[in-house]
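Quick one: co-fold with DLL.
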Amino acid sequence: MEKYWQQEEETMSRELIQKIQSERLRALVQRVYENVPYYKQKMIDKGVEPGDIVTVADISKLPFTTKQDLRDTYPFGLFAKPADEIVRIHASSGTTGKQTIVGYTKNDIKVWADLVARSLSCAGADKNSTVQVAYGYGLFTGGLGLHYGTEALGATVIPVSAGNTSRQIQMMMDLGSTHIACTPSYALYLAETIMKENVDTSKLKLRAGIFGAEPWTENMRNEIEHRLNLKAYDIYGLSEIMGPGVSCGCGYNNGLHIWEDHFIPEIIDPDTGETLPAGTKGELIFTTITKEGLPLIRYRTKDISALDYDACGCGRTMARMSKVTGRTDDMLIIRGVNVFPSQVESVILEFDSVEPHYQLIVDRVDNLDTLSVEVEMTTEIFSDEIRLLEKFESSIKKRIEAVLGISANVKLVEPLTITRSEGKAKRVIDRREIK
Ligand code: DLL
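Sure, here it is.
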């Protein structure tokens, strides 16, 4: 029997979902129009009034919200509730510019915990589970998000936070963790350390991992499942919308269920802003229809995905988004060709002779863009003859060229030389910007 956390909501009919979405959208628009002057002005500028929004189909009449809007109104300008109702602050991990601040009311925290609990139940967790939370605790939403969700579910949470890998493994063994929650890149590092420290893996009770916060490919999923001997689930979210638990994959591995009674998803063409039909890839947009502290209308995530409304074998009826393998802003343009780091990851993991640790270095030499891909070789091939290593390099190079359509320098580096990450991995060094 499939486990649900809120079965009624998770399995309601499309008709009912749309009815709830329409009601909540109407109320949201009214609320922000009255309480957030910035939104009111944006709506006036677009020539739309609260009365124009009747059903969910009217959503495209509303203006988009971007990270820039959050920056322009930093720190609290888009909050829809007074300070005395805000009980928690988090901040988004922007790599450029000012951080963006997000705020939650008591009810927002409750909803968030329930949605993470729904996500954990997608990964087979229940009150008998022990969830080791190895996402960072703090302003980042990963740690506390998973923490509250685990407690809501009634499972046991181990709030170990990120890092201290040997202690993580000790805890895992001694306390019998059944679930581990961390970034996929950290999961690999854990697997590597378990191997290195000769841990008796028969003592581990890990059944599933709840991995997210960064893009990872299907090949990476297979690699992690194999190395840690568990089932890997994909959890997605972003601080602006809530944090982890906006959506989560289930055992059927065909996309991530979006908790649509709280978030209305859309896919748009990132260049024209035009809404795209289900099944088409584009930029993912969310409207938060129940959030009180910081409601967002048509927030542009910059994440690339597609929506699928077909029935899922798990019985959940909520739309699924395809795995996010890139963002509109981490697309590299190299000699005019669009390249996503995930395409390179996918190629690298086709080869047994290299480790799933890699880095892309983009540079400009004599006005020409260059791409170098550094990949770690396994200890087995490390001692092979130079001639054999060159052969491996050239087969990876050929495969990258075939998939990406541009040439790359492939360099096999010694085992354990690429920096391991405890949180989100940094895969790309773009030296072109510095010049
Ligand atoms: O990363 C929230 C989170 C924590 C999600 C723990 C899952 C687990 P931010 O730091 O605001 O929030 O970063 C959000 O990370 O727009 C995506 O680009 C990326 N991202 C998050 N989850 C996934 C995922 C958290 N499962 C940004 N797959 C998002 C791919 C992801 N990318």
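If it helps, The chain has a mean pLDDT of 95.
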